[in-house]
Amino acid sequence: VLVLDAADFSVIEANPVALGLFGHGAETGARPAEHVEPASRAAIDELFATARGSGRASEVRVRMPDRRLA
After folding, report:
1. Torsion, CA 7, CA 21, CA 25, CA 23, rounded to 10
2. Do 3 and 12 contact (CB within 8 A), yes or no?
3. Angstrom distance (rounded) from CA 55 to CA 53
4. What are the angstrom distances between the C-alpha of 6 and each of 30, 39, 64, 66?
5. What are phi and psi of 58, to 5 degrees?
6. 47: exposed, middle or buried (Cβ count in 10 Å: 0-12, 13-18, 19+)
7. Backbone dihedral region for residue 29 (phi beyond 0: left; psi -120 to 50: alpha; all else: beta)
8. Paired residues of 63 in beta bridges
9. Separation of alpha carbons 60 and 12, rounded Å
10. The pLDDT of residue 68
11. Which one is predicted more confidently, 27 or 56?
12. Spatial distance between the Cα atoms of 7 and 60, rounded to a whole number of angstroms
């Protein structure tokens, strides 16, 4: 679970699973979208924008820089 600032999508809080998936991208103040493969950034940006607009988010799969799916 990631708790993000709605203004800039930076991390406010992350649970241990999120830290394991995103590494430095889940640290307080980081922006998780900057820590995924460039081809996945549009999907994660859309997810965050949808969550900000509706208060709900769906699931999205993104590829991490080490090529694993998250």
Report:
1. 150
2. yes
3. 6
4. 13, 23, 22, 27
5. -95, -175
6. middle
7. left
8. 69
9. 20
10. 60
11. 27
12. 20
**Side chain identity at residue 12, one-letter code:** I
CA count, 13 A, side-chain hemisphere, 35: 18
- 54/64 Cα distance (integer angstroms): 26
Could you give the CA distance from residue 64 to residue 33 in angstroms, rounded to a whole number? 10
Query: Residue 54 contacts by C-beta under 8 Å, 6 or more apart in sequence?
Result: none
Give the three-class secondary structure for 14.
strand
Q: Residue 31 corresponds to which tokens in the numbers above?
A: 């922006």
CB atoms within 10 A of CB 10: 16
Find tokens 């999120």 and name the residue.
18
> What tens digit of pLDDT does each residue of 15-38 get?
999 898 888 889 999 998 888 888
